[in-house]
Amino acid sequence: MIGKLSGRVDYKGDDHVLIDVRGVGYLVHVSERTLASLPGPGEAVALYTDMIVREDLMQLHGFTSLVEKEWFRLLMSIQGVGAKAATAILGTLGPDGVSRAIALGDWNAIKAAKGIGPKTAQRVTMELKDKAPTVMAMGAGQSVAQGLPDDGEVIEPAAPVAAPAMAPSHNAQPEALSALANLGYAPGEAASAVATALGDDPDLDTSGLIRAALKLLAPKG
To answer: Where does the Helix-hairpin-helix DNA-binding motif class domain start and stop, copy by copy (predicted)?
Structure first.
C-alpha cells in the first residue's frame, strides 16, 4: 500500500494531480483546497496518500498532512459518505475546520460541503464526535515536507499511522493546549479556555478538556 509519494508535479487537473516519481506517473485525487496549495508543473511535491481498491476501482487520494488523511479515512467510515463526499468536506473546511466542526457537533458546517445533506451531516458529527479530540491531539497537523528526496523514490511507511490512545488525566492540560495550538488558537486564549474548563471540572480527561475548551472559544451569538 502506497502511503506517501515524493516526486515532481507533471500536471494539475480539476480534482487531481499527476506526480512523476522517477519516470512513473501517479494520478492522485485531491481536494480543491489541497490542489490550490500544490506547486506548479516541474516543482517538487510530496503527499501522504491513501489507496482505495475495489473490483471496478483503484484510486490514490492525496493529503498534505496526516490529520487530513485520518479525517478522510474516518469520514469514509460513515454510511453514505464515499471518497467524493469526504473530499468535498475536507475541501470546504480543511482538516482543522473538520476537527472543530465535529468536536462541537456543528453539523451545519459539514452540510456546507457540496453534496452533503442535513441527515448525512448530522450522522457525521454524531458518529465521529468522540474521535475528534483524539485526531486533534495527534500533533500531526504539520504539512508534509514538499522537498524531493535525493533519489525521488516512493516512500511507504513501515506501519499504518494510528491515533495515540488518550493520555492519563495529568497529561490532559498540555495535550489540550497542543491541540488548540494546532488549530491556530493563540497561546493566551487557548490557556484561558483550558483553565476555565478545568476550573469547571478538574477531572476532565484530554478528550473532554479539548471539547470543553472549544465550546468556550466558539464565537458567541
So the answer is: 73-92, 108-127
